[in-house]
Amino acid sequence: MKFGVFDHMDQAGVPLEQQYAERLRLVEAYDRLGFYAYQLAEHHGTPLGLAPSPSVFMGAVAQRTKRLRFGPLVYSLPLYHPIRLIEEICMLDHMSGGRFELGVGRGVSPIEVGFYGVDPAAGPTQFPEALRVIKRGLTSDELSFNGEFYKFDKVPMVLRPVQKPHPPLWYGISNPDTTHWAALERANMVTLLPTKGARTAVKQYKSEWKTLHGSEPTSSFAGVMRLVVLAETTNEAAASARRAYRSWLGHMRFLWDRHGMPFALPLPPEFDPMIDSGAGFAGTAAGYRDFLAADAVAIGANYVACDIAFGDLTFDESMRTTELLGREVIPAFDGDAAFKKAAT
Q1: Of 240, 315, 319, the residue nearest 18 (C-alpha)
Q2: CA dihedral sign, ordered 159, 165, 168, 172
Q3: What is the pLDDT of residues 228-245, one digit of tens each?
Q4: Domain assignments of the chain as residue spans, ordered by start
Q5: DSSP code of 120?
Q6: 303: part of which helix (H) or strand (E)?
Q7: Do residues 227 and 276 touch, judged by C-beta distance below 8 A?
Q8: In what helix (H) or strand (E) does residue 188 lie, and over which residues does it extend?
Q9: Is 3.40.50.300 the CATH number for 2-342?
Q10: pTM confidence score
Q11: Distance CA 297, CA 86 (A)
C-alpha cells in the first residue's frame, strides 16, 4: 500500500502568497515523511483551483523535494497545445530526476473548458487524440500527426523525458464505466467514489486489464481518494473536518451554482455522510489505520490519495494530519507483511 496526497489547492482564506508558501512547506513534509506522490488538480475561474497552471507550481515542488513523486491529477488535455505540454512534461521530468507522474483527462467541468473556447461535447474524442499526440511526441525524435483536432508535420522533438517510454500515466475515475480507458492505456487509476462504488471500479479496472493484456495488473496502482483529517482526539478532528468541508464544498459547487447548473458530483451537504460512505475520515491515527485496513481490503486498492489540505483547514491542522499519517499510519502499511498485519 502506498500513500499519496491529492490537492485541489482551493482557497484557504489566507493571502495567496502565504498559501503557496505554506503548501510548499507541506510538500517538503510529504517528502520527509515517506509519502509516495503529490498530485495536484487543475481548475480555472474558481476558488477550487488556485494553481490553474499546475506545471508552474510543480516546478517549485521539483526543487523542494528529493524523493517525492509528483504530477497533475489531471492535466485537462483539450486546454493545452500538445507541443507546449510535451515540452513542459519533459522539463519537469528532468528537473526532478525522473519523478514526474502524468495524470491526464478531458476536464470534469464543461464551464471551465468553455472559458477556453473548447467545446465540452468534443471532449470524448479530443482528449484521446490529444493523448495520442503527446505520447507520440514523448517517444519520437520528430512529431508528425494528422487527426481531427491536431495536425503536425515533422516537428523536431528536442526534449525527451527521463522516464521511458514516458512518465507513468494516471487517470481519475468518477464512474466505473470509464475504467476501460485506464486499463487500455495501462494507466494507474484513482477514484473518489465511496467504498461501494470504488470496489466496483477497482474490480472492473482489474478485469478490463486482464482481458486487454492477458494478466492481472501487477505494477500499476488502483487507488482511492479520501478527505482525511487526523488529530489526537476524534472530536477535535471532526470539528476541523466539518468546518473545512463546508468551505471546500462551496468551492466545488461555485461555478455550477453561479451558472444555475445541476452539480455534477453526488456530494452531501455535510461531512458526516462522507464518513458513513467511506469517502472521508476524521479521527485519530489509530482509528484511521483500522478504517484503512478494512476499507482497502474491501475495495482491493493498493494506493490511497489523501486530501489533507482542503477548504479552510489551517496550515497547522493540515500539518498535524501530515505528521500523524507519516509517523503512525504509513509505517503500518509499509510492505506486504505490514499491510497483511494491519488488515487482520
Answers
A1: 315
A2: positive
A3: 999 999 999 999 999 999
A4: 2-342
A5: G
A6: strand 303-307
A7: no
A8: strand 188-191
A9: no
A10: 0.96
A11: 37
